[in-house]
Amino acid sequence: MTATAIDNDVLLKGACYGLLLEMVSTIPSHPSQIGVLGAAQFVVIKNLNKKNYCSSPEEAKNYLMGFIGEVSILEPNADELAFAAELEHMAQRAGVSLDGGESQLTAMVIVRNFDCFVTGDKRAIAALGYLRENDQHLKKMDGKVLCLEQIIERLLSSSIDPITVRDAICNEPNVDKAVTICFSCKNKELQPDQWMVGLNSYIADTRNKAKTLLAA
Fold first, then answer.
1. Kindly report the CA angle at 82 between 7 and 95, in degrees rounded to 5?
2. 67 and 134 both lie in a single domain
3. Mind listing the pLDDT tens digit for each residue in 92-148?
4. pTM
5. Which alpha helices (DSSP H) does the chain contain, by range?
6. Is residue 191 part of a domain?
7. CA angle 59, 61, 62 (to 5 degrees)
8. For position 186, what pLDDT does the model report?
């Protein structure tokens, strides 16, 4: 049974870092309980082909396909597509950013009552937080959203060697500029507690915009 939906942004960055499985373990969810959009592999691979994004795109693609082979594929039904379109229309009228993938995953998380929605799109999180104030359906997302920085923070608090996490991120400086900054990749003398300061700053900013949606 699917319990967690993961967006394309997290798949893309996790594949480049080579940390998707470790990231999933912090939710915690077994890969079989993870759901991704059916089009995810095509969208993510297209982005992996972009010049200078990922240092080892072929390795990242292989890692991604192995991961997708273990998870569930999510396809929205007609009602969920209609709900997603309504969310996008609401976002457009409100002047906030919510793309098709994020709206579809949000609709499925609500309709299918998933436990968690992991997204690297902070603009989408802010948009959902804004729309939640006037939409009863979105209140069902309260406490279910996890941002990328929260997942990275959990990795640093897990049994994984923090240096392994830092090296994976610092070896891919173009993947996520904000996360790269948090790890002060040019200053190897800084310790994990100092990396946490940067991550917590981004998390606090996202939580402020997400209202009650962001998980503890």
1. 70
2. yes
3. 999 999 999 999 999 999 999 999 999 999 999 999 999 999 889 999 999 999 999
4. 0.94
5. 8-17, 20-25, 40-48, 57-68, 78-94, 100-111, 122-132, 148-156, 162-170, 177-182, 192-210
6. yes
7. 65
8. 81
* 4-6 β-sheet, strand order: 72-74, 34-37, 4-6, 116-119, 145-147
DSSP 22: H
Whether the predicted pLDDT of 77 surpasses 90: yes
Range of the domain at 89: 4-148+206-210
Do 161 and 139 share a structural domain? no
Place of tokens 């309709």: 111
The predicted-structure confidence for 4-35, as pLDDT tens digits, reads as follows 999 999 999 999 999 999 999 999 878 889 99
Domain total for the chain? 2
Q: Tell me, yes or no, whether 25 and 124 share the same domain.
A: yes
Same domain? 62 vs 105: yes
Q: 120 and 188, same structural domain? A: no
